[in-house]
Design goal:
The structure holds 3 protein chains of 3 kinds. By secondary structure, chain A is of the alpha/beta class. Chain A has helices spanning 3-43, 50-54, 74-81, 102-109, 152-162, 181-190, 226-248, 264-270, 280-294, 317-337, 348-381, 387-414, 424-434, 439-456, and strands spanning 61-67, 89-96, 112-115, 128-134, 142-147, 167-171, 176-177, 196-206, 211-213, 216-219, 259-263, 299-311. Classes of the chains: A alpha/beta, B mainly alpha, C alpha/beta.
Chain lengths: 473, 353, 123
């Protein structure tokens, strides 16, 4: 057998084993997630959250929402955040040096005046220009921090400095939270005595085409564009069949930056957000986990499958590409920064399971897939392509993708049923059918570009998300 | 015709068996996946159909029984014939599972919002319609979440004779059942129901403590229990819970015990105790707080300084000054704030950190 | 002239029950399922007394109070309902202009007595 054959064999077996592991891991995670979701569902089916609302001992929560050039919707967004049904909470808006009239609009609408609040700076941030509170008692929950531009992470750190609450809900300011979001998200922190819960993640739902009035979700509708529907399918798979399992295994490496709740003390002690990365939401989780392990403290990161947070998803390829590009760079940056965790037994599951899995199946997977496709192309060119092999691989992967998507749609159907109009499920199934040859290739492309941008164009910032206005029907 | 298919099948089979084993396996997997997809699809459409059907049915039935129920409640003595008709209708309906669930939910929900005559009336109706049996059956279920539903229904409807059953669950392995039993004890026996705290060996989560406190807040006209027994408990969670009750019921007279708790073996209890002392503004605690400061961990130190900020007078200035160069920036900053509030014209000291 | 009562409550069954009872006592009733509906009905019908739950989906009773006192500038008596000691909300309600409050669970008999008493005090 000559070296050529050997190389060929090596590639075949490599891809085979890689795919076999990824498929089985998806199945295992899917099964664990399902059990976990069902258990959560049952456990909370008779919970009354009223006790936490009424209690003088209800934990204090600060919502931290950085704002940059959100003038179009900022007033509505803030009003929505202030009408949640929790009692012991405050809303902290951090104006990160917006160039538009965000701050002016807030000052005018909420009767804000500059105040002097003594605070204890626990994390360094860009300079604060002023702090504002409302003169109107109805808005006494609101605190607005005006500071020089420093990015989302820096803005969040400023918010952390000014908060005195036990827990922090870090959100994107244009995220619409359901009225009971806070009490549901804070519950996991209060339910364990053997471990300290340091963070909770929530499910992000796509608000495109949903009817939202006065900051409340009135009706859930299936979005019109395929690209939006694709993201729904993606999120369902990722949240309902992925993250619930990781949470159970205590191996979760990321909580969405759109909505997450954290123990404020632990967050400060771990150092706050890292302003040098675009993936600050993933990086802080990894660092908080590392911090707990370094200090030999038992901990857990929980996940809530309830639909509590609704956000606007990119509705065109340009913005989607920009978002996925950023996600890729964030993953790379975080994994690089914490390379010491890799296969390090000192870090238990974090180092021996989560980190390697993320490294191979999240960060390297797009690259491996591209190499696989190129390899197929190469074989075709040198006329060494075994059609039976190629066809079999492609078909098994395609069918698996559809089967997994069906599982996700089914999972949603058996739990929250947010899309309950006639034909909604069919629309999602259609996307599942065309995804492998359309959107999946696009995401692959965006990930590769992310790698390029990371390695060859260091000066990339957060990218822009053009505000369309959430909730327009 | 049959021969054609036969040939096709033989061709197919021989081709298949010629393939390398790996590919054979892959194609079996493909067939399995395909079957799963079709099954999922059928299952999905069935669920959706059934759900829409049930939803509509539920809505119609709910409106129907809602009206019947309300009419039944407000019919006067003269209209006794109509009353009997409605009663019979409900009585028959209860035999049907679907209808029974609708009626049960209606009565339970309504009962939860009402008190007084009407509440008692609904409890009697619940009993007369025989719904108690169904709730008791749920309570005897082996499945934990059904058991809990049963306990709730039975407790809400003030069904008698479930004391033994509930008591047995106080020490159950399943945390959720234990918690439910604890809540039920308080619902039924008010403060006396808290007796389980005397011998509890399990921890109590913060969430459960909040639930217990909600129930306790519903207690009216009952004498407060003596909290000192629980403040001295071996179970640190019982102590923590008792501290909450001390705060809730303004039991300032326990202050000596509170001060002792500042040196409890559990960090959580120490911090909670300091919090309560701060809340009650107990000056006498300052000495002990300053004493234990140096032996405490950073987190507790912050609690201590925060409490001292609340209680401080000129005597504390020296202590605060000693903290200005603390390694922990929060402590030093709090100390600075403390000094500034006591000596308004104190020039801003440059911190060496 | 029948006196008009407006009741804002999201639980349909309770709503229906109270409507029945109030009509039996001789009141003209308007039932709203949420804050928005309440505002619309209040503006259109100018009730003599308003009863509203503090926490409803899509809106809060506080918004209703604010609307009546500040936008419509009426001094219609307002009674708020709350479940198990939502003290802070109740205090806010009073600050905004509510006149009385009843906690849930409540007795419809007591409710009727309260309504009658408040309306009588106005005369």
């Amino acid at each position: 057998m000559d070296s050529n054959d050997f190389v060929l064999q090596f590639f075949y077996y490599f891809f085979l084993i890689f795919s076999a592991i990824i498929i089985s891991s998806y199945i295992i995670l899917g099964i664990i997630s399902t059990f976990e979701t069902i258990f959560y569902f049952r456990k909370n089916s008779f919970i009354s959250y009223k006790s936490i609302l009424a209690s003088p001992f209800a934990p204090s929560i600060s919502i931290l929402a950085p704002c940059y050039n959100e003038g179009l919707n900022i007033v509505a967004n803030v009003r929505s955040l202030m009408s949640l049904h929790y009692v012991n909470y405050q809303v902290i808006i951090i104006n990160d040096g917006s160039k538009d009239d965000s701050l002016e609009k807030l000052i005018k609408q909420y009767n804000l005046e500059k105040v002097d609040i003594p605070f204890i700076a626990k994390i360094e941030t860009k300079p604060i220009r002023g702090v504002y509170k409302s003169q109107n008692a109805v808005f006494e929950k609101l605190l607005v921090i005006d500071k020089e531009n420093g990015g989302k992470a820096d803005a969040l750190n400023a918010g952390i400095n000014y908060s005195n609450s036990e827990y922090l809900a870090c959100i994107d300011v244009d995220c619409m939270l359901t009225e009971d979001a806070l009490q549901k998200m804070v519950k996991p922190f209060l339910e364990r005595t053997d471990r300290k819960v340091i963070a909770t993640g929530g499910v992000i739902r796509i608000a495109n085409n949903c009817k939202i009035e006065n900051g409340k979700l009135m009706q859930v509708n299936m979005p019109k564009k395929l690209i939006e529907r694709y993201q729904i399918l993606e999120y369902l798979r990722s949240f309902l069949l992925g993250r619930m399992a990781w949470s159970r295994l205590n191996g979760l490496l990321i909580i969405s930056g759109a909505f997450g709740m954290f123990d404020r003390r632990i967050m400060i002690d771990a150092g706050g957000y890292d302003t040098k990365t675009v993936g600050e939401d993933m990086e802080i989780i990894v660092r908080m986990r590392k911090y707990m392990r370094d200090n030999n403290r038992k901990y857990k990161i929980a996940y809530i499958p309830d639909p509590l947070c609704w956000t606007e998803a990119p509705d065109n390829f340009t913005i989607l590409q920009s978002q996925r590009n950023r996600w890729t760079r964030g993953t790379i940056e975080t994994l690089r920064k914490h390379w010491r965790l890799f296969m390090n037994p000192k870090y238990g599951y974090l180092g021996l399971l989560s980190y390697p899995y993320w490294l191979v199946y999240e960060r390297l997977a797009p690259i491996i897939e591209i190499i696989g496709l190129l390899f197929l192309g190469y074989l075709y060119l040198i006329d060494a392509l075994n059609w039976i092999y190629a066809l079999s691989f492609i078909v098994v992967a395609y069918f698996f993708s559809i089967a997994f998507s069906m599982a996700a749609i089914l999972s949603e159907e058996l739990t929250y049923r947010q899309y309950n109009k006639k034909g909604d499920a069919l629309k999602l199934i259609f996307v599942a059918l065309i995804e492998p040859v359309t959107f999946h290739l696009f995401t692959l492309y965006a990930a590769i570009r992310g790698n390029f941008t990371f390695y060859f164009q260091k000066q990339k910032s957060w990218g822009t998300m053009v505000r369309k206005g959430i909730g327009k029907v | 015709m049959a021969e054609f298919y036969n040939n096709l099948f033989i061709n197919f089979k021989s081709n298949y068996l010629e393939l390398p084993q790996l590919i054979q396996i892959i194609w079996i997997v493909i067939v399995v996946e395909f079957i799963l997809i079709i099954t999922a699809f059928i299952f999905l459409s069935q669920i959706r159909l059934r759900f829409t059907k049930n939803y509509k049915k539920n809505k119609i039935l709910k409106e129907k029984y809602q009206e019947l129920l309300i009419n039944y409640i407000y019919l006067t003595e003269e209209e006794i014939q109509e009353k009997k008709t409605i009663y019979n209708q409900l009585h028959t309906a209860v035999k049907n599972n679907f209808d029974r669930e609708v009626i049960q939910k209606l009565i339970l929900r309504l009962h939860g919002d009402l008190s007084g005559e009407l509440a008692t009336f609904l409890e009697e109706l619940y009993s007369k319609l025989g719904l108690i049996q169904y709730s008791l059956k749920k309570m005897k279920s082996k499945v934990w979440y059904i058991k809990i539903k049963g306990i709730r229904e039975v407790t809400q409807m003030k069904v008698q004779g479930v004391y033994e059953e509930t008591l047995r669950l106080i020490n159950h392995d399943n945390k959720l059942l234990r918690n439910e039993a604890q809540l039920t004890m308080v619902k039924l026996y008010q403060f006396k129901g808290l007796a389980f705290l005397d011998t509890l060996e399990f921890p109590i989560t913060e969430w459960q403590q909040l639930q217990l406190i909600e129930e306790i807040q519903n207690i009216r006209n009952e004498e407060l229990p003596d909290l000192t027994r629980w403040l001295k408990s071996d179970n640190e969670y019982v102590v923590s819970f008792a501290l909450k009750l001390v705060k809730l019921f303004n039991q300032i007279q326990t202050q000596e015990l509170l001060i002792k708790l500042v040196m409890h073996r559990s960090k959580r209890v120490r911090q909670n105790a300091i919090g309560v002392l701060e809340y009650f503004k107990i000056d006498e605690s300052k000495t002990i707080l300053k004493q234990v400061y140096s032996k405490s961990d950073v987190e507790t130190q912050r609690y201590i300084v925060k409490a001292l900020l609340e209680l401080a007078n000129e005597h504390e200035i020296e202590f605060f000054e000693s903290l200005l160069n603390s390694e922990d920036p929060e402590v030093s900053q709090m100390a600075l704030i403390g000094i500034q509030s006591l000596k308004p014209y104190f020039a801003t000291v440059k911190l060496t950190k | 002239m029948k006196q008009k009562v407006l009741f804002a409550e999201d639980d349909k069954t309770l709503s229906l029950l109270l409507k029945f009872r109030l009509e039996k006592e001789g009141f003209e009733t308007y039932m709203a399922a949420d804050g928005n509906e309440a505002k619309i009905l209040i503006e259109a019908n100018n009730p003599d007394i308003i009863l509203t739950d503090i926490m409803m989906p899509f809106s809060s009773g506080l918004e209703v109070i604010s609307y009546v006192r500040e936008e419509l500038k009426r001094d219609t008596p307002i009674v708020v309902f709350s479940s198990a000691g939502q003290e802070e909300m109740v205090l806010k309600a009073f600050n905004l202009g509510a006149n009385d409050f009843m906690s849930k669970p409540f007795s419809p008999n007591e409710l009727i007595i309260r309504i009658k008493r408040i309306l009588m005090m106005l005369k």
